[in-house]
Design goal:
The protein has 72 residues and is mainly beta. It has no helices and six strands.
């Protein structure tokens, strides 16, 4: 999992990218269900759903916009 920008600010959209493998170690197919649970410093959690990133197997993208400052 990696994201940009490296030092996001409040209300700045963060691009999330993940390379996901299945249990056997093979890249997950486009139809895979990929989510991330993001917990804010206050404890509030939200789930972000990823979608397949083009034709590459195992590559998924999502986005998140933090509503509060601090480490998530």
């Amino acid at each position: 999992l990696y994201y940009t920008p490296d030092q996001p600010t409040v209300r700045q959209t963060v691009a999330l990218n993940a390379t996901v493998m299945d249990k056997s170690g093979e890249p997950l197919g486009k139809g895979g269900d990929v989510t991330a649970r993001i917990v804010a410093p206050s404890g509030k959690a939200e789930t972000t759903r990823f979608t397949a990133a083009g034709e590459e197997w195992g590559a998924f993208r999502g986005q998140f916009t933090p509503a509060e400052p601090g480490r998530h």
